[in-house]
Every structure is written in C-alpha cells, then in structure tokens.
Amino acid sequence: MRSKRFGLALAAALALAAGNAAAKDTLTLGVGLEPPHLDPTAGAAAAIDEIVYANLFEGLTRIDKNGAVQPGLAASWTISDDRLTYTFTLRDGVSFHDGAGFDASDVKFSLDRARAEDSTNAQKGLFAAIASVEAPDARTVVVTLKQPEGNFLWNMGWGDAVIVDPASAETNKTDPVGTGPFKLTRWTKGDSVVLSRQDAYWGEKPALKTVTFKFIPDASAQVAALLAGDVDAMPNIGAPETLAQFDADPRYEVVVGTTEGETLLVLNQRRDLFKDPKVRRAIAHAVDRQAIVDGAMFGFGTPIGSHFAPHNPAHVDLTGVAPHDPAKAKALLAEAGHATGLKLVMKLPPPSYARRGGEIIAAQLRAVGIETELVNVEWGQWLSDVFKGDHDFDLTIVSHTEPLDIGIYARPDYYFGYQSDAFNAVMDEIRDTADEEKRKILYQKAQRILADDTANVFLFQLAKTGVRAAKLEGMWENAPIQANDVTGVHWR
Amino acid sequence: MLSYLAHRAFNLAAALVAASLLVFVVLSVLPGDPAEIMLGVGATPESLAALRAELGLNTSAFIRYFDWIGGVLHADFGQSMTYGVPVAELVLERLQVTVPLAVIAFLMAVAVALPFGVFAAVNRNRPGDYLVMGFSQLGLAVPNFWFGILLILLFAVQLHWFQAGGFAPWEDGWGPALKSLLLPAIALALSEAAILSRVVRSATLDVYREDYVRTARAKGLSNTAVLFRHVLRNMLLPVVTIMGLQFAFLIAGAVVVENVFYLPGLGRLILQAIFQRDLVVVQNVILLLAALVVIVNFIVDIAYALIDPRPHGEAHR
Q: How far A216 CA lies from chain B's nearest CA (Å)?
C-alpha cells in the first residue's frame, strides 16, 4: 500500500516536472446568497441568474461580458423593414440535458409561457411587445411585435427569457434542465450547487469540468474561505475593506468592475414637499457623493449624475449639474420656504450601501438644517411599504440593478412618483428608433432631463469587487447583467 | 394519577394550539409579501396575482390557518413557498447538521468541564483552582462567533488543516462530515464548558460539605476513595439538571456559529425563511421548536410525578 502510494506520488511529481500535467479543470466560486430555486423564468432573485445564466440555460440571444447582444440558440435573425417581424434561424444539434431534442416548438412554448396570463415570470414586461410567436418549421421562429421595440434582441438575452423544454418546465425550480454547457449534478441546500460539463453540448466545450458555487453569506467568512483556499474566487466580495489585503498578496488578483446598479437617494415625489424642484435640488447640493463612496463603500464605486451606467457608450457625465454645495442647498431651501429646517424619514434596506450610506447622508443633510430619522427595514418590508402599498417614506437609498432601466422614470405609477412629459416623449422616441447613433443621442437627452429635474439624487454606480486566484482567467470583470458566466473560465 | 395525566395532556394540547395561533397571527401582520419578494421590482401586477394564487395566498387567513393545522395533524407540513419542496424534507436536511453539531459540542463541553471542575474543587483556593476558574472566566467572556473566527484564522487560513467552513454531506462519508463540524463544535462548546465547569466545581464543593462525606473521611477512607465513591455520584444530580437546560441554549447558539462557518443548519433556514417571508417554513419550524419545549416539560412533569409518590391533587399544586 505504502509503496503504491509512493509510486503514485512519484509519477505525479515527474509529470509536474515534465511540465505536461493536465491543467486544473475544477472551479469553486463563493457567492453571498443562495438562490431560492434554479428556475430563472420564475423568480427575480439575482442569485438564480448568478448560477444558471449561460451556464445551464440559454436564450435566443445572449448578453456577453461587454453587455453586447450575441447569438444564442438563434444562430442568426432577420428583421423586417417595419421592424415588427423577427425571423430567427435556430442552431442545429442542440439538445436539453435530459436528452430531449430542441426545436422551434420549444421556443414558441417558452415565449408563450412567459407572456401568458397566468405567467409568474418576474420580468413579464420583457415580452410585452410580442403579438405572436410562430414556428413554421423546426429551425425557424417568427416573432411578430405589436409595435417596434428597439431593445427586443437585448430583452431576449435576459435570464428570464431562456428557452425551456415543455416536459421539464414545471420542475426546473429544483431540477433545472436547460441547453447550456453545464448541467446540475448536486444541490446541497444551504451549502453548495455543483455543475458538471455537458459533453453533448452544441457549442464550444468549456475548459472546466466541474464548477461548485458555495454559499457564504457572512462577509468575514468569505474572506476566510478565500484565504484558506476553500474557494478559488469570490466574484463579488461582501467586505470591500479587505481588498487591499488581497491586492498585496501575489496569490490573488483583485478585479474591480462595474455593475448595472445605479445607487440612488430616492425622493418620494408623491409628497408635496418633493413636488417642488427647488427642494429636490437643494438635497442634491447637500449630498457629497465622493464622501459616500469613500465612507460607505471604501472608495469603490463611481459617482453618477443621472440614472445611467458609466460603462455604457451612451453615458454622459452629469455629476457637475448638482455638485456638493451646502451653502447653495441652504439658499434653495430658504427660497422654497424651509429656512427653519425640515424633518424627514429615510427608510434603509439591509445592504451596506444603504445602511452605511444612510448615516453619512443624514450627517450631510444635518449640515444644511435637515433632520433625518433613519429607519432600518428588511427587503420584504421595503417592497411592501416603500416600493408598493402606500409608499410610506420621504427618502430611501436603493440600488437599481436591472440593466438599462432608465425607462422606469416613464412609468406613471412607479414608487418615487416622478412625472415628466418631456422625458416620456424621449422614451417613446427611443422605442421607435432603430439607428444606434440616434438612440445614443436620445439616451443622452433622457439622462440630461433626469439630472436637470433632480428626478432623484443620483449617488454612485455600484462596483463589482471581485477577488480571484491569480492563475484563474476568463471571469467577467463587469456585470452588464446578473451572471457568473463560467463558460470561458480556465486555469493558467 | 390518570386524571393528573389527562389534565397535563390537556395543558400540553392547549399550549400547542396557543403557540400555533400566535405564530400564525404574528406572521400574518408582519409586513412583507412572499410573492413580491420572489418576483422583485420588475414584476407586473398580473404575475404577482398569478403567483399569489399559486401559493394559496388569495384565500382567507381563517381557511389558511385550518388548512395548515389540518395538514400538521396528518403529518403534512406543506410546501416551502420559495424552495418549492416539502417543509419536512427541508427541516430534516437541516437537522442533520444542527443536531450533530449541538451533540458534539455538548459532549466536548462535558468532557472538558467534568474533570476540570472536579480538579478545581479538589484544589480549592490553590493555583490549580485559580487557573481553571481563570480560563472559565475567559471562556464566558469570549463570544462564540469571535472564537470561531480565531479558530478559522489559525486552523484553516494559517495551517490549512481544516476548511474555513461549509459542510461535507453525510452521504460522502462520516469522516469529512465530522471534520467539517469539529471547529464549529469547539467554538460552540467553549462557553458551555466554561459555565459547566463552574457548576461542577460548586456542586462538588457542596457535596464535600455534606455530613456523609465527613463520616466517610472519619471512617478513614482516602481522599481518592471519598471522591469516587461518594462525591462524584452525588454531585452529578444538579449538574445533569443544568446540562439539560444547556442543550436548549446549544441549539440557539448554533444559529450564530452556523453563520460564521456557513453551515447549512436549522438556524440559517429559519433566518432565510423569515427574510424571504416563506411563511410555511417559518410557522412550521417555530411550531416544531415550541412543541419540543412543551413536550420536554411534559415529560419532566410526568417524571416528577412518578418519582414523587405524594397525591397530585389541585391543592398540591
């Protein structure tokens, strides 16, 4: 026995010495939240997409690490001149993990299911423009829209729009069956999800054979797991204060990327007080964005001046519209008739950007004569008291993490109650415009309107603070959508 | 005796009904809608309505309560709203972590506290006593989550002897599973051992003051013989009572330690279920815990009744 083991060790050592040892083909990723289930078409939890997107499930299109739309299960498509008919040509040789074949009827089923009356899709709005879905033959899908929708191909790339098999659609929550290059092999509830390579995959096979997602909610436990080598990477670590330590250690690489999370100090414009643009602007002048980024986020995060991600090509820097200027804030408040000061209630959901950010903002508001009562709430309470229901709040801090979601300011019944006909007109124009350059100009116009109106106080873009083993390559740096696409990850 | 038993059993049932009502009412008035949490900020009103119907949230609270209790009486605890799997399955999975963790920590605490407590008592007011009591004071003062972090830093980060956390499922063998519970159990056992060694010390000292010990000494028995034949056996009675109380604290303390070592235990299940407003899981787990406490009390009552032969009338209570 002993000599056998010695022999094995010797062989391994020789193989290493010869430099032809097979590259490592397993990966363990640490993630903060466990998904409630693994069906991206039936839940909003980012934790679902952060495991299944592009790895387990695929849609007609997919969104790449730069946020661009790429072909997915549709190899190509043509768009009619009136931009109402999309004809998709599907890939050959695609099958589901359980061996079931993939064809146009699966696409029709999936899209019809998502937009059906009894659909529980969390992003049903993505499918709102669809008038009908037809499958004239096994390789062709024709989608007809009610009105032109400039974002249609992008919408079809979301995790909520992935293609599922009618036979397994109802059981995907616990037993997900997709077309992706990885399949689920094990889910130890509360501990980990293990994916393994699907050898029958239609496309390029990933370098990794096994990928484990370990659920580590506690920030200090995340740091310990990285230091102990239990996990190879944390795509988004909960303790940004430790990044300097990892940066100094040659075994790790720190990657700070951007996300689609615009972090806002939301002003409830259903309150008469905030219907006055002077008061809104006064609060914007009272807030020092960089101090919040430094104090609440340990310096990670980019100040923003409107509701748009800085990494988007259409972004325009509007942080100069309402710079930190307490004197001006006081003057505006006096002009608006609040020289004697104000008392406001700020409701703070659990993330540290809100809880820590709230304390800093309260101090900054106090400097201009506004007293703020901080009320900590859970997500469930935030959703039913602030976002829905009576909208019972003056101020709240929240990060809007949906990609390209500037359109929320055009929703008449949205929780912060912003109204602008000029803005709505621009959004309508964007919907009707196909030309990329023109769309870009329109998006910039929209950003300017929000900044000039102080539609909210725009604080900063949430950073993605990742730590990974130095020899790991191919992980996404930014998060254009909520995903941990490991299909291109490999060890050096 | 029979009427006493019937009376006690009625109290037990009444306590459980009261607990179930309380849990249900508190969860009903708690703000937060499970459908909203699951579908998030982009959900349309139709999707929310469809999901509420699917989860059975659109029926009246009255009907939901009796559906729940009716199910419980048939050992059907329903389905988790967020996970979509039976609650019984979820809870059993989690108990496989929390119960062994608590048992191992308990055994460790006893194994440490008994010899050291007796040692301190025997060496009362001598350096050995001060040393043991000093450590016990320290053990009481150190919070278990912090001690857990220290253990991780030393044994996982520095020495790489253990994983920093996580749980190796029992199906993969006893060795890895026990190994993954060892550091958390030590973290959990520390304060229990500290409390227990103090109890052991004072119980031992109390017994030493008893007349029969003085008699034994007068007979000419050696110190060792007195200790093993008389003191230890009598000292155990109060100690066992405290141990019983401590076991409940261990289950509670496990919640904190499970978080530090990211173990998939019952504590994390409850926390997650509360945040997700997974009402079915929360109400069943809380009812289970309430039932455990009530049933243990019931057994203790019956045991006292059996040990104590005096009549159990109203006047006696």
A: 6
> What is the C-alpha separation between A168 and A102, in angstroms, rounded?
12
Summarised one tens digit per residue, pLDDT across range A137-160 is: 999 999 999 988 888 999 999 999
pTM over 0.90: no
Contact B40 A173 (CB under 8 A): no
Q: From CA B234, how far away is CA B211, in angstroms rounded?
A: 13
pLDDT 10s digits, B120-159: 988 889 998 999 999 999 988 888 889 999 999 999 999 9
| Shortest distance, CA A397 to any CA of chain B (angstroms) | 15
Of A45, A228, A400, the CB nearest to B163: A228
> What's the angle, vertex CA A363, arms to CA A357 and CA A368, rounded to 5?
125
Query: Which residue of B38, B41, B154 to mutate against A (max A Cβ within 10 Å)?
Result: B41
pLDDT score for B276: 82
The model's pLDDT over A232-245, given as tens digits with 9 standing for 90+, comes to 999 999 888 899 99
**CA B149 to each of CA B69, B191, B265: distance values in angstroms, whole numbers, following the listed order:** 42, 15, 18
Tell me the nearest-neighbour CA distance from A402 into chain B, angstroms.
8
Sign of the dihedral defined by the CA atoms of residues B95, B98, B102, B103, in that order: positive
Kind and range of the H or E element at B249? helix B232-260
Q: Which residue has the higher pLDDT, A178 or B299?
A: A178
Pairs from B12-17 (Cβ < 8 Å, separation ≥ 24): B12/B294, B12/B295, B12/B298, B15/B290, B15/B294, B16/B287, B16/B290, B16/B291, B16/B294
Q: Is A221 on the interface with B (CB under 8 A)?
A: yes
Q: How far apart are CA A391 and CA A388, in angstroms?
A: 6
Say whether A184 sits in a helix, a strand or coil. Answer: strand
Question: Which among A224, A378, A381 has CB closest to B165?
Answer: A224
**What backbone torsions phi and psi does residue A390 show, to the nearest 5 degrees?**
-85, 0
Could you give the CA distance from residue A420 to residue A422 in angstroms, rounded to a whole number?
A: 5
Task: State the first-to-last Cα distance of chain A, in angstroms, to the nearest integer.
Answer: 34
B179 interaction partners in chain A (CB closer than 8 Å): none
How many CB atoms sit inside 10 A of residue B220's CB?
7
A225 touches B: beta carbon within 8 Å: yes
Decide if A220 and B167 are in contact by the 8 Å CB cutoff: no
CB within 8 Å: B164 and A383: no
